[in-house]
Amino acid sequence: MTARIGVVTFPGSLDDRDTQRAIRLAGAEPVALWHKDKNLHQVDAVVLCGGFSYGDYLRAGAIARFSPVMEPLLEQAKAGLPVLGICNGFQILTEAHLLPGTMLRNDHLHFICRDQKLRVENAETSWTTDYTAGQEIHIPLKNNDGQYVADAYTLDQLEAEGRVAFRYLDFNPNGSQRDIAGVTNEAGNVVGLMPHPEHAVEPLIGTGRTDGLPFFTSILKKLVNV
Question: Could you tell me the pTM of the whole model?
Fold first, then answer.
């Protein structure tokens, strides 16, 4: 039996089907989870996908953070369940305080959609072991509220503890402090990033490369080897 990875759909989610396909291509079994679910149906990991949950009212991710499915997710993530937040999912993880910092409107005040060059800073999380530290990859990016910010103490702590997972290269698309594109929690089981790895898993789509597939093969290998 292969690993079962849940993908949560909120009202306004856009990339749940793409994420399920990426999981399937990696060799795992995607499990659809609904925002009103009160349990995680015994999945081995969870992805919070991209989109505009609840229309981004109040703040991006602020309402989704209180969805029923988040209660068991919060409890199990703190106990070690691997969780990946992509774009809106990253915003939800910061609102839920599973990851530090917060997301603001892009500094140029416009929606942006482009292929984005990144550097892998931490290849030791549950979701990044199939990368190497320092590796440069290209992942599609699309967001309106993608500016990562935190106070100076938090930023210094993230840097010192190696918890910056990904950094923008060549061009900072949204004004994120210190070019941060993604971060991880202390345990390395929870990762959030603004770019969309699920759109870079087949040569035919996205960037025309498969630079995003290692997210999903990394977690599969971790779960299979547990």
Answer: 0.96
